[in-house]
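Worked Example 4.2. Consider the chain below.
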Amino acid sequence: MTSVTLALLALLSATPAARPSAEEVLRTQCRTWAADPKNPWALAHGIAAEGRAFKARDGRRAADVIVSDFLHREGPDLRFDAFAADGTPVEPHPHLLVKTLLLAGVPASQSFRAQGGPVTLGALVEDLKRDFRRDAALSPHGAWTLDALSHALPPGATFTTGAGETVRLDAVMDEALALLEREQAELLAGMKAGLPQVPKRKQGIYAHPCGGLHLFQAVASHARHPAVRKAWGPRLDTQVDVLVYRLGSESRQYDAALTSAPAAYRLPVLVQMVKFHGHFLETLGRYREETGWKPTPEQSQAVEQARALLDGAVRRLEASGAFRDMESVKAAQYQLYLDLIGDACHAAHGLSYWRNHPGG
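Applying the procedure from the previous section yields the following structure tokens:
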């Protein structure tokens, strides 16, 4: 067995009295498997959970590895490939890596060694602005671009793309809110009608990666600016209510899937539960931290429900052996292997926002 496997076995075989929390299990999983210096996508998830000091397994800072090993130049442009030649994800969602560095608090002036000479994070942001396309930013894969722009620029900012188009940040983020409203319209209708659930059929918000929760994060984060919050009024409050309704709707469907699915299909369901409940907690945690949002008693209850459901899914994953045998999962189901890394990082990050919440 590898040293990685032995470390995880030691954690998971702890005595009941010293049983680690779900967050500790997830954080160990994230720290262990997201530290792969050959997987920049995983490194970015490690940074999201652990902060900008997170290091790759070779001892280098993850941020340095991402830029120095994977950024390349095409004339004046700076590029990360979507995937490496062997299929390893680099930046499958445009500007995911820049967004990760910005949210981790890396200064724009931070300089990195890169192919062809040093590069600052500010230069990567300038490249994002030159490349900006409204249709791409408002597509299912555009949430990371929106989040990056909102954190790099203040309200009222404008910039010019490489195609000569003048872009107003406020207008783009207003369109992003309208997109979120359209994509969650079926859930809103179900909530208003008192339906116990709205089936997932890859429609609307479910056509987005990670169930559209990164779009929600990008939009909600922009509301940290008081002027934006005032302009949007109750519209964002409604979307928060829809997200809370979605928790009950989606959880019922996971319960049904676990009950009816053959044993071979239960692992993907458990991973999906970690993905949704972890992103749910991360989304509302970011919203609270960035905007000062104060959940109602009902919303607080939803947070506790999500924590309990996430804990249950993590315990079942522990029992399945998936965390202990990642190399076998990688060989048999590569996407599931990636999910067990990325979703562990997001879920650990989500739980960290609510450690001191009543019931925590």
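Residues 1-9, 11-16 have pLDDT under 50 and may be disordered. The first strand starts at residue 71 and ends at 74. Compare this with Example 4.1 before moving on.
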